[in-house]
Specification:
Elements: H1 3-7, E1 10-15, H2 21-26, E2 32-36, H3 46-58, H4 62-65, E3 68-71, H5 80-92, E4 97-100, H6 106-116, E5 121-126, H7 129-133, H8 135-139, E6 148-149, H9 151-158, H10 170-183, E7 189-190, H11 199-212, E8 216-219, H12 224-232, H13 236-251, E9 257-259, E10 262-264, H14 266-288
Parallel strand pairs: 1-2, 1-8, 2-3, 3-4, 4-5, 5-6, 7-8
Antiparallel strand pairs: 9-10
Helix pairs in contact: 3-5, 11-12, 13-14
Length: about 290
Amino acid sequence: MSDPVRNACSFLFVPATQPERLPKALASGADMVIADWEDAVAPADKERARGALAEAVAALEGAARARLLVRINSEGSPWFAADLQALAQLTAQGLAGAVVPKAESAQTLQTVAQATGSRAALVPLVESVAGLAAADALATGPQVARLAFGHLDFQVDAGMACGDTEEELLPVRMALVFASRRAGLAAPIDGVTVDTRNPERMARDAERARRMGFGGKLCIHPAQVPVLHAAFDPDEAAVAHALRVQQALQQAGGGVCVLDGRMVDAPVLAQAQQTLQRHARAQQRLASL
């Protein structure tokens, strides 16, 4: 399975029918790029999308292929079988794996896993009430690296009409965070922000995702990527404080101590270590640009 998928924060969608966008997406700073065979492709263009992606991948270097996922069509669609055949060829060439839409059963994941090969990562996309009910089974499914939330389809399936803050979806988001934690997965991936011209909304959505325990977010425009990273990557003050926490506990011999008038104990140290881990990933991303 692919470690880049587990460690990624930003996942940028690109329609597979527009392969010329792939190099630009890979150069955008996004951690992972998702070539889309599903919602972004009209029914009449499904076959063309598979062929176009195969040609584009052949021109990519290995490191770029390892940052590429494919969102296939759902199991109930007429394109599923052909998608799996094409996906098998792509993962054999080094693609990271697949995003599995409308995931509702571990059996579906087993079918996809058998087609992709053991090194490919799967990202089940929870987009329905049935998918939410199966979250624990999906999280422990074969080759699953992360869960992701398709909140737009979920609202339709549940008959919801959410406001701008999406407070109605807070229990669903928390359920995915908890299911991921129970399964020992990396933190889940939150859904897209559809307003591509509103960086303030993107920043607000990304900050909410981070506070709730998500590890990243889906993006639909390159301009959203740096906004997302700014919300998830700790700033200099947060890193400095985390280092001071670490140092204070070391000086205290691992016991409880006081820093700036506040108690510092094992949970505070764990939070500081998480901050430093996020900082290390951010630095690694910058170094790779």
